[in-house]
Amino acid sequence: MQTAAHIPAPAYAPPKGLFSYRKHWAHRFGTAPFLPMSRAEMDALGWDACDIILVTGDAYIDHPSFGMAIIGRLLESHGFRVGIIAQPDWQNADAFKALGEPALFFGVTGGNMDSMVNRYTSDKRLRHNDSYTPGGEGGKRPDRSVIVYAQRCREAYNDAPIVLGGIEASLRRIAHYDYWSDKVRRSVLADAKADILIYGNAERAVVEVAHRIAKGAKFSDLDDVRGVALMKSAVPEGWTELHADDISASDEGARASSNTQTVVRLPAFEQVERDPETYARASRVLHRESNPGNARGLVQKHGDRELWVTPPPIPLTTAEMDGVYDLPYARAPHPSYGDAKIPAWDMIRFSVTTMRGCFGGCSFCSITEHEGRIIQSRSEESIIREIETVRDKVEGFTGIISDIGGPTANMYRMACKDKETESLCRRPSCVFPGICPNLNTNHDPLIDLYRKARAVPGVKKVMVASGVRYDLAVKSPAYIKELVTHHVGGYLKIAPEHTEAGPLSKMMKPGIGTYDRFKQLFDQAAKDAGKKYFLIPYFIAAHPGTTDEDMMNLAVWLKKNGYRADQVQTFLPSPMAISTAMYHSGKNPLRAVRKGASEEVATIKGLRQRRLHKAFLRYHDAENWPMLREALKKMGRADLIGNGKHHLVPTWQPAGTGDKGGEGRRMGKKHKGQKFLTKGVLGAKALMPRGR
Questions:
Q1: How far are the Cα atoms of 297, 395, 572, 576 from residue 580, in angstroms, in the given order?
Q2: Weakest-pLDDT range from 63-67, 227-231, 375-379, 417-421
Q3: What is the mean pLDDT of residues 71-80?
Q4: Three-state SS at 687
Q5: Helices (H) and strands (E) in the chain — how many of each?
Q6: Which of 141, 564, 565, 585 lies in disulfide reach of 57, CB 3.0 to 4.6 Å?
Q7: pLDDT in tens, 185-214
Q8: Is residue 256 over pLDDT 70?
Q9: Would you state the pLDDT for residue 662?
Q10: Which of helix, strand or coil describes residue 539?
Q11: Separation CA 77–CA 17 (nearest Å)
Q12: 14-36 pLDDT, tens per residue?
C-alpha cells in the first residue's frame, strides 16, 4: 500500500511570468516618488482613491529589504495605485481611514518581524525598543498585529476585502502552537476574519490575486493560486483526500495517481489543540509538503469550515528576481519621519541582497518555512547595478557596502544538480545529516561576484555580515581565503549553535568538528593575510533535546577555547517551526510520529532550568556562579568548581553578586584578561574571544 508520502502530486502548469500581465488601467498615473501615506500625497499624484492599501507594523522605508516596499512597488509596476498606512494607532479605526476605502483590498502585514517576537524576549519579558520604528521606540505596534489591524480595517470599511501577508501571517497559516499564550491557536486567517492569506515571499500570488480581483473574481475563486490559504465550507468535488498518517494512506489515497487532484488532510484544529502528539504529526506532514515540485495542497478543519492551503509558490527566476530588485525604490525612509533615526534602516541602508531562501532546514529557524528552501539568486549585473545605485544615491555612503548576502552569505546560485531529483525530494534539509551528493556547493560564482563588487569605482570595501554557512564553506578553501582576505572587518559571525550531538541532531546542525575545520581554515587565511580576525560563534540555550550535561559540556568547551558570551539566546519557540513542535509535544517530528511509538524529546520549559542553561553559556558571570555551583554538585561534577584554569567556576564570590535567581546582568568586578563585545543589532547574540 502506498503511503501519503508516495502519492504523486498533481501536475501544475508553469507559472505566468511575474511581469507578463497586462497593466491595470491606473498605470497612466506613473510612478510615485514615495507610495503615499496621506490624502495630500494622493491628491498630488492625481488619485481619487487607492486600489490597494498596505497596512504594516513597520515604519515605511522604501527599500527592497522591507516587505511592504517590495510588494507596494511591484503592484505599482502592474498599474495599481498603492498607498501605505504604517504603524497606525490601533486603538480605533480612524487611522485606517487616512487614505479612504481601497478600490480592491487592504493588504495587512505585521511587518518584517513577527509582532510577538519583536515585542517579547524568549523569557516573555517586554522589550522596550523596536528597531523598525523611528527613534527605536517600542510599543508602536500591537501584539498579534495582523489580527488587530484586520479588525480595525473591517471597522473602518466593513465591505473592504482584507488580504493577509508577511511573516507573521505566513507562520500562522495553519493551526499553530503559540508560545506566548501556551496553547494551540487557530489559523490566523480564521482569527483575523480576513478574505485570504498569502504566505511566503508573495510576489507571484499577490500579483495574480490583484489582477483577478480587479477583473471581478471572488476570493473564493482563488483556490487555484499557489501560496494562498482561504476558508471553504467543504472540500470541492473531484479532489482525493490523503490522511496525514505516517503509517499508511487511506484506500482512496492509495489509489490516487499522478493525474488526480489530491490534498492532504491535516488533523483538525480541535484535534491538535487537545493532543500534542497529533500536533507533532501535523507539523511533520506540513514540512514534508514544502517542496514546490511535489507539494500537495493541505486542508484542515476549523469547526465547521475547511482551511484550504495551496502548494508553495514556484520560486522566482533570476530575471524575475532582477525585476523585483530593479524597481524604482526611493531607498530612504518616508519624508514624514524627518530626521528620526530608524535602527533597522541604519543597519541595512548600505547593504545589498544577492539571494533568498535557505536549504539548511535548521529546525528552530523560520527562513525555510517562509522563504522556501530553493535558492533564488539575482544576476551579477543586477547586483552591481544596485551597488552603483547605493554609491550614487544613498545619502551618507562612504564607500563601504555593509553587507552582501541574504539569509546566508554563501548559498548564492547553489542548487540541486538535477531538477528532476529536486522536484521529487522531500528531505527537510540539503545539508543534514550531511551534505547531499546532489547539491552543487560550488562557490566560484560567489567569488567572482565578490571580486566584481569590490572593483566598482567608488567602493572601498565590501563587507560580508550575513551568517556564513560554514559546513558549505569548508568545501571551498578558496572561498574562505577570499572572504577573510577581502570581506571581513575584525570578526565574522558564525552559528554552530551547540557542541553536543544530542541537541545538534534536533537542531539539524552539523557536528562541532565541522566548525573546528572552518576555524582552522579561517585562522590560516587570516594569518596569510596578515590580519587579526576573530570568529564570533553563536549558541542556543534550552533547545529541545538539550540536557543539563549538554550545557555543562558546552560551557567547558567555551572556557577551554577562551570564549565569554556577553549576550546569549535562549530558545524561543516560533510559530510552525519543527523545534516548536518538539517543545510543545515532547515528540520528534523529524522521525515518524505514531501514536504511542513516537521518539521522545526532552524539553526545557521550567523557568529555573531555562535560566540554568542560559547561565552555563555565561559561566564567567559571577551572578550565575551560585546557581552553577549548586547544579554542578547535583550533577556529580564538583570537580569543575575551583580556582584553577581548568575549573569552570571558582569557589569564591565577589561582594554584591550572586542573587538567587541568577538574574544579575554584570560582574561586580572585571577580571584580568576578560573582554566583552556587545553586538546588539536586532536582537543578535554575540561571543568574543577573550583578550590575550
A1: 22, 42, 8, 7
A2: 417-421
A3: 98
A4: strand
A5: 24, 25
A6: 141
A7: 999 999 999 999 999 999 999 999 999 999
A8: no
A9: 38
A10: strand
A11: 14
A12: 789 999 999 999 999 999 999 99
Contact 189, 173 (CB under 8 A): yes
pLDDT(674) > 70:
no
In this structure, what is the dihedral angle of CA atoms 133, 134, 139, 145, given to the nearest 10 degrees? -40
Residues 271 and 359 in one domain: no
Q: Which helix (H) or strand (E) holds 437?
A: none
**Can you tell me the distance from the alpha carbon of 488 to that of 497, in angstroms, rounded to the nearest whole number?**
21
CA-based R_g, the chain, Å: 25
Residues 113 and 150 in one domain: yes
Give the contacts of 259 (CB within 8 A, at least 6 positions apart).
Answer: 10, 11
Give the domain-ending residue among 438, 471, 504: 471
- Are 296 and 361 found together in one domain? no
Tell me if 49 sits within 8 A of 100, measured CB to CB. Answer: yes
**230 and 265 both lie in a single domain:** yes
The alpha carbon of residue 393 and the mean position of all alpha carbons in its chain are separated, in whole angstroms, by 29
Q: How many structural domains does the chain have?
A: 3
| Nearest in space to 89 (alpha carbons), one of 187, 35, 156, 41 | 156
Per the CB < 8 A criterion, the answer to whether 507 and 542 are in contact is: no
Confidence band (pLDDT; 50, 70, 90) for 257? very low
Which residue, of 437, 471, 505, is where some domain finishes? 471
Residue 15 lies in a domain: yes
Question: Could you tell me the residue range of the domain that residue 677 belongs to?
Answer: 488-692
pLDDT in tens, 556-600: 999 999 998 877 889 999 999 999 999 999 999 999 999 888 999
Return the closest-CA partner of residue 211 out of 303, 77, 13, 327: 77
Burial class (CB in 10 A: 0-12, 13-18, 19+), 458: exposed
Give yes or no for a contact between 353 and 406, defined as CB atoms under 8 angstroms apart: yes
> 425 and 492: one domain?
no
399, 405, 407, 408 alpha-carbon torsion, rounded to 10°: -120
Short-list 284, 264, 186, 170, CA closest to 579: 284
- If asked whether residues 627 and 501 sit together in one domain, one would say yes
Q: Which three cell numbers stand for residue 636?
A: 556529580
Query: How many percent of the chain have pLDDT more than 70?
Result: 91
**Whether the model pTM is above 0.85:** yes
Neighbours of 601 (CB within 10 A): 23
Q: Are residues 458 and 538 in the same domain?
A: no
Whether 236 and 256 have beta carbons less than 8 Å apart is answered as no
| Residue 327 lies inside a defined structural domain of this protein | no
Q: Is the pLDDT of residue 537 over 60?
A: yes
Amino acid at 369: E
Domain shared by 505 and 461, yes or no: no
pLDDT confidence of residue 692: 24
The set of residues, in sequence order, having a beta carbon less than 8 Å from that of 381 and lying 6+ positions away, is 322
478 found inside a domain? no
